[in-house]
From TrEMBL:
Its main location: membrane. This is Sodium/hydrogen exchanger. It comes from the Eukaryota. It comes from Canna indica (Indian-shot). InterPro entries: Cation/H_exchanger_CPA1, Cation/H_exchanger_TM, NaH_exchanger. The lineage of its organism: Eukaryota, Viridiplantae, Streptophyta, Embryophyta, Tracheophyta. Residues 37-437 form the Cation/H+ exchanger transmembrane domain. GO terms for molecular function: potassium:proton antiporter activity; sodium:proton antiporter activity. Belongs to the monovalent cation:proton antiporter 1 (CPA1) transporter (TC 2.A.36) family. The chain crosses the membrane at residues 22-44, 88-107, 113-138, 216-245, 265-287, 307-329, 341-363, 383-400, 412-430.
Amino acid sequence: MLELNVTAPPAISPPPGKEQQAAGVGILLQISMLVLSFVVGHVLRRHKFYYVPEASASLIIGLLVGVLANISNTETSIRRWFNFHEEFFFLFLLPPIIFQSGFSLAPKPFFSNFGAIVTFAILGTFIASVVTGFLVYLGGLTFLMYQLPLVECLMFGALISATDPVTVLSIFQELGTDVNLYALVFGESVLNDAMAISLYRTMSSVQSHATSGQNFFLLVLSFLETFVGSMSSGVGVGFISALLFKYAGLDIDNLQNLECCLFVLFPYFSYMLAEGLGLSGIVSILFTGIVMKHYTFSNLSESSQRFAAAFFHLISSLAETFVFIYMGFDIAMEEHSWSHLGFIFFSIIFIGVARAVNVSVCANLVNMVRPANRQIPAKHQKALWYSGLRGAMAFALALQSVHDLPEAHGKTIFSATTAIVVVTVILIGGSTGTMLEALEVVGDGQDGALETFESNNGYIAPTYQEGTSSGSKLKMKLKEFHRSTTSFTALDKNYLTPFFTTQNDDEDDSDDSIHNASR
């Protein structure tokens, strides 16, 4: 029997000149939107118009340009330059944002609240993910919304629990809020990204390989190993960079170019090292930023310090703005499944409920072991609940779920995440200023708190009063925690700082103030 091998005709590719022209037009549009976003953001900030924050303005610009591109039937070759690629986001846009977060961090408020931050970021994100997943699953069983399998509901709960408070934090800075509240919101948002990614990947492996529930503790252990390993690699890279710049003698005039180049490369080295080892690059580069700011930065020459501070602030601002433009354009260009509006509506309600449970449980746990003068007040808890915006991280994971799940399920999750991102960034982000004023946390003693942190080496000493104490055992635990905090401060001051830096604490503090003033 004769068989005919019929091959499909090769796809006709556009001429090289046409492809290059399309690339030029696509990049030109991206640059134009960046310029427009920065100009609009400057005008809004100058007139103190907080109802449309810069991130919201960038997202709206991306949405509008995307809608116009759809209406005008823009060529496919040009559209290709605007597709939101998860790899591009995770490998190129996210690292400078996370590093700048750690590099610009005021370490004393952060580490003084580190226990609370870890509680909200790890336990809180786990609670929010599970509560959201089970509520969505129960909503499907009761026919309130589109029904998904339990594992896929938990995947949705994991990806939607990644908070992205870029909008909220910028308004916090403009209005001036309590330093402890700022540290909690900032620290939770950075660390919970790693937790959300780990939970999503864990649920994805369960969904694809039908992992049994007997491996739950192994999954928890694997996450802890990933977190500790990522933190260790980031701290290790930071310490290595501090020793290199201390002993290499690069702080002379004719080697400042080399000094700056090496300083810029270390953060990416930390991120890619962790990713290459199967760890979390986000956690690694965050702690690299913290360590490099505290130890390495003081080993640079003055001109290199000015360059490093300006450079990382510049690229992080570009990356943040581009992420929201990129996201807005892709939201308008992607195909969405709007047939399940009930899923979107109830998902928004369920994540609000899950966020409330998360904040309430974690705040009560933290307040149980804190003295009365350091407890998280109710108005700060409300601000924490309100500041749980969803942004680029949730969007990127939702876009990945389209490939990880059956087509109808992935499209439904992606469309719901898109709607949640738009609602939280534009509506909630725009009303943040009003919320802060209503809760009376605007100008809530930030300067005084900073002075207290400085004068007490980053720790506010607890006052043990008979009326507020819950027992002698709790008193002893608090005293032990106080001793451990002050002992770490003494260790850093007496051993780590002299070993890894060339300057003393006084000069370090002055450098920090100069660096913060330059920003």
